[in-house]
Design a protein that fits this description.
Helix content: 40-55%
Bound molecules: phosphoenolpyruvate
CATH topology: TIM Barrel
Structural class: alpha/beta
CATH superfamily: Aldolase class I
Low-confidence stretches: none
Radius of gyration: 17 Å
Shape: globular
Number of domains: 1
Strand order of the largest sheet: 7-6-5-4-3-2-1-8
CATH architecture: Alpha-Beta Barrel
Order of helices and strands: EHEHEHEHHEHHHEHHEHEH
Strand content: 5-15%
Largest sheet: 8 strands, parallel
Number of strands: 8
Length: 253
Amino acid sequence: MRDQIVAGNWKMNKDLSQAENLVAEIQQQVNGQSVKADKVILAPPYVYLNYLTERLSGSNGLHVAAQNCHQELAGAYTGEISAAMLKSLAVEYVILGHSERREYFQESNELLARKVDTALDQGIIPIFCCGEPLSIRETDQQETFVNGQLTESLFHLPQESISQLIVAYEPIWAIGTGRTATAEQAQQMHASIRQHIAGKYGAQIANKIPILYGGSCKPSNASEIFAGADVDGGLIGGASLNADDFIAIANSL
Ligand code: PEP
């Protein structure tokens, strides 16, 4: 069946020594017990990627993701990081389309389609984020809205590419707000996402793609949310900054 995955998005948090401590604690806990998640992915800020990939190489079940990459492979883009650079550091995954990137850096569905292509060309697996703002949820348009994000950013891909992806459903109104989607709302959206992918690529491909939930997920609510048949784990923000909470979530699958 599908991989059960927990990914921690550290965002712009932790200085170097704090990052070293967090990864050491996570590594110790993952090595010391068998964590229920098939894959535990850590997405630190860019500046710690090399440290993490070197430290975690050969570490069972622990993987590294970047939080973004540029759509071009190289060039005069001051301050940007390319998928080719990530590949050279042995980074396996990249989060693309996080709502904070969409909102604060004006990343459109069209731009994200290019980023997805560039990452896949470099052999890096996108963790593609989608999710609706509160105004859309309040008018019950969330399925149409999220389907549009998927169609515009992913549906140009051939079957063999889309089947490599991880999708993260993150309702914007639940990110960092302490307000979580109910288990029922999460399952309903995950089923809708899978159905939309199946409509284009067929059920066999859609059933292969892990769909993670993100939005104020914590040890106290993770088991209930992860119980949904189409919920294959979580993309965790705030709670991934604490090793005990993050591992507790990875054990809630
Ligand atoms: C996120 O930003 O991807 C996220 C899910 O954040 P939080 O868990 O803090 O809501």
